[in-house]
């Protein structure tokens, strides 16, 4: 053996040993088992890949629905404010409660001049051209009425106003009841304010100012006493709170369980509506509120989806076309005259005919109530039954 190659023999021996170990039967069985396991793993991986490739329907996780609170109709209060009348009631009521939309507030200091918002009076009546325009308008109406034929085809015989005036001046009014029929509101306890009928019949000698918080369908904001926006909102809050407690018998502390539906005119002031919503939610304490236009509510209340709504109120007349619950903006129209202007015209006709009650004045609240009652009793639109 060559000493120069000392590892030659050792390398041959190791090679021989490895060769003999590879061809042993035990080692072969072990290798086969390992190969079988690797193949099974590969098959499982292929199956997983195939399963991943198939699009399975995505099933959303089951989430329990939140319990929805059912709204009961008797816990909904509907408020419909008007220039002269306030209507309110529960959603389940057949008819709303109706009260005069007026408040009388006690003066803070005695001796102050008494103030009262005008009812039948309006600006521009005392202008020099007002009387001439009124006479020309009455002449046009007289000509249109007397030109119409009666139902039998015969023309009417016109009667001049002078003849009626001279006849009525010869008549003396008969006193039917000597006892005073007016019962003034009792103010001995000096309440801070009075609402509705009690405010209408406050004695003028008492130290109370009378305010109508809504005029011509809008908030009655003016430069006179209690004419600021905050003062008008305070009057509305006092009137509505009193009406809710008296007519609906709902304590103010329980309004947190009630929801409110506020009806507003078709043409409205956005800032005023915002202040009203804030008053109902924050000051009065309603839990929720829905603001809707009265023309849309009137259409649905009549069982119609589309209609042309004409609303003749006490101080305004509004027109609007509603289609599928939407009030069309281009069709909205508001005219600044209504029932109180008809009452004032009726008063002019009575004066022209020599009305026996010669002391009647539009500035007197009781005279306004009397004229309103006479108009509702005797005025009509039947052209075949005409008087002066």
In DSSP terms (H or I, runs of 4 or more residues), the helix count works out at 10
The helix/strand series, from N terminus to C terminus, equals: HHEEEEHHEHEEEHEHEHEEEEHH
Query: What composes the largest sheet?
Result: 5 strands, mixed
CATH topology of one domain: Nucleotidyltransferase, domain 5
CATH level 1 class label of one domain: Alpha Beta
CATH superfamily of one domain: ATPase, nucleotide binding domain
Shape, principal axes of CA atoms: elongated
Number of strands: 14
Alpha carbon gap, first and last residue: 159 Å
Helical residue percent band: 25-40%
Which class best fits the helix and strand makeup? alpha+beta
Oligomerization state: single chain
Strand order of the main beta sheet, please?
3-2-1-9-10
Compute the gyration radius: what is it?
A: 44 Å
- CATH architecture level-2 label of one domain: 2-Layer Sandwich
Share of β-strand residues: 15-25%
Extract low-pLDDT stretches.
1-23
What's the mean pLDDT score?
83
InterPro entries: Actin, ATPase_NBD
Organism: Synaphobranchus kaupii
Protein name: Actin-related protein 8
Describe the structure.
This is Actin-related protein 8. It comes from Synaphobranchus kaupii. InterPro entries: Actin, ATPase_NBD. It holds the Pfam family Actin. The structure is a single chain. This protein is an alpha+beta fold. Among the domains are: 152 residues, Nucleotidyltransferase, domain 5 (2-Layer Sandwich); 51 residues, no CATH class. Helices cover 38% and strands 16% of the residues. It has 10 helices and 14 strands. The strands form 4 sheets. Strands 3-2-1-9-10 form a 5-stranded mixed sheet. Strands 11, 12, 13 and 14 form a 4-stranded antiparallel sheet that branches. It is elongated and about 145 Å long.
């Amino acid at each position: 053996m060559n000493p120069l190659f000392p590892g030659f023999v050792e390398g041959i021996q190791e090679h021989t040993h490895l060769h003999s170990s590879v061809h042993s039967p035990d080692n072969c069985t072990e290798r086969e088992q390992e190969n079988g396991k690797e193949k099974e793993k590969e098959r499982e991986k292929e199956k997983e890949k195939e399963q991943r490739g198939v699009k399975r329907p995505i099933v959303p996780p089951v989430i329990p629905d939140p319990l929805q609170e059912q709204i009961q109709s008797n816990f909904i209060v509907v408020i419909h404010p008007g220039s002269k009348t306030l209507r309110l009631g529960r959603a389940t009521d057949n008819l709303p409660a109706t009260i005069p939309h007026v408040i009388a507030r006690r003066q803070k200091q005695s001796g102050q001049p008494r103030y009262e918002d005008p009812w039948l009076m309006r600006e521009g009546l005392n202008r020099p051209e007002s009387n001439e325009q009124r006479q020309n308008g009455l002449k046009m109406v007289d000509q249109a009425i007397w030109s119409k034929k009666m139902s039998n085809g015969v023309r009417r015989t016109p009667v001049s106003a002078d003849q009626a005036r001279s006849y009525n001046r010869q008549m003396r009014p008969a006193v039917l009841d000597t006892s005073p029929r007016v019962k003034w509101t009792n103010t001995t306890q000096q309440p801070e304010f009075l609402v509705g009928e009690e405010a209408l019949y406050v004695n003028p000698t008492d130290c109370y100012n009378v305010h109508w918080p809504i005029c011509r369908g809008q908030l009655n904001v003016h430069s006179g006493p209690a004419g600021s926006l905050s003062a008008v909102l305070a009057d509305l809050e006092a009137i509505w709170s009193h009406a809710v407690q008296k007519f609906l018998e709902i304590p103010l502390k329980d309004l947190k369980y009630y929801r409110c539906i506020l009806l507003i005119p078709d043409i409205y002031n956005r800032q005023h509506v915002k202040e009203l919503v804030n008053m109902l939610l924050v000051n009065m304490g309603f839990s929720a509120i829905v603001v809707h236009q009265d023309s849309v509510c009137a259409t649905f209340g009549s069982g119609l989806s589309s209609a042309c709504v004409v609303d003749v109120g006490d101080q305004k007349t509004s027109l609007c076309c509603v289609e599928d619950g939407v009030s069309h903006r281009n069709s909205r129209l508001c005219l600044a005259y209504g029932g109180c202007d008809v009452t004032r015209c009726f008063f002019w006709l009575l004066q022209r005919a020599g009305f026996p009650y010669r002391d009647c004045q539009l500035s007197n609240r009781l005279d306004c109530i009397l004229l309103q009652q006479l108009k509702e009793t005797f005025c009509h639109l039947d052209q075949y039954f005409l008087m002066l």
